[in-house]
Amino acid sequence: MIMPVLPNVSPGYLRPLLPSGPPEEGEPWSDIQADIDKIIIPGLTHWQSPKFMAFFPCNSSYPGMLGEMYSGAFNAAAFNWICSPAVTELETVVMDWIAKLLALPDCFQSAGEGGGIIQGTASEVVLTALVAARERLIRRKLGDMPEGDERMDKAADLRGKMVALGSEHAHSSTQKAAVIAGTRFRTVPAPRSTNFSVSGKALRKTIEELKEKGLEPFYFTVTIGSTGTCAVDDLEGIAEVARDYPDLWIHVDAAYAGSALICPEYQHLCTPIANFDSFNFNLHKWLLTNFDCSAFFIKRRKDLIDTYSITPSYLRNQFTESGLVTDYRDWQIPLGRRFRSLKVWFVLRTYGVNGLREFIRGHVKLGEYFQGLLETRPDVFSVVTPAAFALTTFQINPSKPNAPSSPATKSNPAHEAYLNDFTNDAEAQYREDANRVTKEVYERVNAGGEFFLTSTVVCGLYVIRVVSAVERSEEKYMKRVFEVLVDTAEDVVKGKEK
Ligand code: PLP
After folding, report:
1. Is the ipTM of this complex over 0.95?
2. What is the spatial distance between Cα 395 and Cα 417, in angstroms, rounded to a whole number?
């Protein structure tokens, strides 16, 4: 049985179903369990449903769940080696396995100066990297200047001039990290003409403009698989910029699409990462590892340790002093940490490399299948970005004679012919109509409750996103969502009421 993907409850549904405070005496587990079915499950959005095609997935698996259960049973705040040697050592080993699996450059292996750590979310990783980048620049600029008021004043001046950068389509976590770190934030343009990806040239131009104003660009998030369209920034071009600006910390955010790098056909994307400082992807999105699990790889672990290692006397111990152990507390913002590597180890062993590759490739194929379905109806749909990492984005064509099949693509001959026939006003009107009908179709499909989709706006285009990457995704669901979209689009374009 498939449960409805979206719950049928209204905001505030829960409070009236619960008492006004906790019980005075403990209750039997059977009563608590019964309330899970009665009160909680009706209020869940089912992320594991094959009809969940929104955001990016949050896949779970039997070994992933067992890993969470064991971690809960062993329950520890294992922040340094002696707080549970198995927690630290398993994490180091599985992160080296993962680096190898993704064909990340050797500099990210723990045998050299780098290594990997598991953090909770990509946002946490971006913040950790950005703050470390800020402090690294201060260390480099102020060098041996002695600690004291003068150094602190100079550091404060410098921090006020620092600018964190990200693509205009980078996930909001970069901007949020800049807010938390108290630095400036500036976007780098990533227009439709470059498939919504940042080029090396655009990054260089932004850096030069900022430097001319006396500002200090210190950090840039490169994206592999942007949230809106799964765009991949120009890694080779950005690598050249990295060589010219060694003080700029470049972090690669591959939160969702990074899982595809386990397949050799995507691993050409990994080579340029050797030029960057750090990389992350979320195993909890597309690699069958239960939430939360974000793998963070760093080229020089010293860059993290120099920022985050603060050791009061109560944290001192002979193993730390020996220099023979890793204390992951020095690579992260919180002190305590969960035993997340267990679920990664279970998933890797249960599926094996081949099982995981098959899982990813199946979803990529489903994305291509769905794009193919859209292309059978060019009268109804315009594909804005073709299937990339199982995500396709598209618009609904408004009812307009001679509508181009891809209205906003300047390089599309149909669009060019269209522009020649109409004035710029007509083009603007066409865009507005396409955005309006696309939004209306999107809202009607979600209100229908059979599927859960998300939409976004990229460079002024309102697009619907369809992702085919939950574990139970199948061709029949892609076909069904296509039919629902066609029927809804026809109703909307004909002006039929809901
Ligand atoms: N980066 C990208 C590219 C994303 O798509 C997302 C979320 O979808 C994030 C970062 C944030 O992920 P998290 O929820 O792990 O912070």
Report:
1. yes
2. 19
**pLDDT of the residue at 117:** 98
Residue 311's SS3 state is coil
Query: Does ligand 1 come within 6 angstroms of the Cβ of 171?
Result: yes
Place of tokens 């600006």: 245
420 bridge partner residues: none
Token pair 């913002």 is at which residue? Answer: 333
| Axis crossing angle, helix 424-448 with helix 413-421, rounded to the nearest 10 | 120
Q: Which residues, in sequence order, are bridge partners of residue 252?
A: 222, 279
pLDDT at 400: 57
DSSP secondary-structure letter at 370? Answer: H
Encoded tokens for 292: 């939360």
| 121 Cβ inside 6 Å of ligand 1 | yes
**Closest ligand 1 atom to Cα of 120:** 15
Backbone angles phi, psi at 32, to 5 degrees: -65, -45
Residue with CA closest to ligand 1 atom 12: 122
Atom number, ligand 1, closest to the C-alpha of residue 123? 16
Report whether 129 contacts 279 (CB < 8 A).
no
User: Which residue has 């600029």 as its token pair?
Assistant: 141
Q: Answer yes or no: are the C-beta atoms of 441 and 382 closer than 8 Å.
A: no
- Indicate if ligand 1 lies below 6 Å from the C-beta of 123: yes
CA distance 163 to 183: 6
Question: Is any atom of ligand 1 closer than 6 Å to the C-beta of 256?
Answer: yes
**CB contact at 8 A, 163 and 217:** yes
Q: Which residues contact 56 (CB under 8 A, 6 or more apart)?
A: 227, 255, 256, 285, 286, 391, 467, 469
Query: Which structural domains are found in the chain, ordered by start?
Result: 77-338 (3.40.640.10), 352-493 (3.90.1150.170)
What's the rounded Cα separation, in Å, for the pair 347 and 341?
10
The owner of tokens 């620092």 is 162
Q: What is the 3-state secondary structure (H, E, C) of 234-275?
A: CHHHHHHHHHHCCCCEEEEECCCHHHHHHCHHHHHHCHHHHH
**pLDDT for position 415:** 47
- Cα(130)–Cα(153) distance, rounded to whole angstroms? 21
CA–CA gap between residue 373 and residue 367 (Å, rounded): 10
CA distance 458 to 89: 43
Q: Provide CB contacts within 8 A for 440, sequence distance 6+.
A: 492
Q: Is the CB of 221 under 6 A from ligand 1?
A: no
Q: What is the largest distance, in Å, between two alpha-carbon atoms of the chain?
A: 78
**Mean pLDDT, the chain cut into blocks of 10 residues (498 residues total):** 90 97 97 96 96 97 98 94 94 98 98 97 98 97 90 94 97 97 97 95 98 98 98 98 97 98 98 98 98 98 95 88 90 95 98 98 98 96 97 90 48 48 72 95 97 96 97 97 97 86
| d(C-alpha 393, C-alpha 438), whole Å | 11
